[in-house]
Amino acid sequence: MAEVVKFEDVRVIRSGRPILDGVNWSVDETDRWVILGPNGAGKSTLLSIASAQLHPTSGQVTILDEQLGRANVFDIRPRIGFASSAMAKLIPEDETVRNTVLTAGYAVAGRWNESYDEIDNEQTDRVLAEWQLENLAERTFGTLSDGERKRTLIARAVMTDPELLLLDEPSASLDLGARENLLASLTDYAASDFAPAIVMVTHHVEEIPVGVTHALLIREGKIVTAGPLAESLTAANLTETFGLPLDLTYHGGRFAARAAN
Ligand SMILES: Nc1ncnc2c1ncn2[C@@H]1O[C@H](COP(=O)(O)OP(=O)(O)OP(=O)(O)O)[C@@H](O)[C@H]1O
Questions:
Q1: How far apart are the CA of 40 and the centre of ligand 1, in A?
Q2: Could you read off the pLDDT of 172-202 as tens digits, one per residue?
Q3: Contact indicator for 69, 55 with CB cutoff of 8 Å
Q4: Which CATH superfamily is domain 3-259 in?
Q5: Under DSSP, is residue 27 helix (H, G, I), strand (E, B) or coil?
Q6: 44 CA to middle of ligand 1, Å?
Q7: Which residue has the least CA distance to atom 28 on ligand 1?
Q8: What is the pTM of this model?
Q9: For the chain, what are the domain ranges?
């Protein structure tokens, strides 16, 4: 198995305070990770580094065999798919769903005068079908519901066949039906032999799709636990991470958590 992400003693200091501290973490190419932690724990910062958008203050980070700080980040970034609410803000409201996905090949948001090959159009059709967006292909991004936007952003993120897929809260703010549909799509995608390594951030264990293999729990910039799901996602570790007694249940590959009585 090849390592696609490796953090060694990573530290990020902001306003004189460590927001990531002593982080050691590695992701293999067949892994599907979930990152869980309370607000402000450092989850988005972790993803910013893994997507080669941010350099740590100290420590060493290797992404897709390239060391941050030595390699050209513009060579690394196109190999990573990243779907986040920050990305959503960059998509013009009048961009169609089709063009939102298609333009991923040029890493631009907003179609202008780029020329695309037939192969790009075929790949777009394939990805739109895979993420059940065919019927929305000509709709503009600004008219989509939250769930449709999330789906479109994930389709855009996988359009370039990335070697690493990062998803920042893919099912946050979705209604129950939209959440369950999206989780089912993520489960299908993650089960494919062709899917890349996946890392997704979430606030809720209920939003962990079936098929996730590993969990990283983080609190105040420090890893509480990181490893195979069965060992790391326990009531005791969740309790430590969120700072209150929690019960955890597992049924049919899915988790639920609530305050312990
Ligand atoms: N530029 C900055 N200057 C000062 N503090 C910062 C800066 N950027 C991030 N932080 C702080 O770092 C901490 C971690 O932020 P981060 O966004 O990574 O957390 P998170 O776990 O993703 O939170 P959330 O779940 O609320 O999205 C927060 O306390 C945040 O306020």
A1: 5
A2: 888 999 999 999 999 999 999 889 999 999 9
A3: yes
A4: P-loop containing nucleotide triphosphate hydrolases (3.40.50.300)
A5: strand
A6: 7
A7: 40
A8: 0.93
A9: 3-259
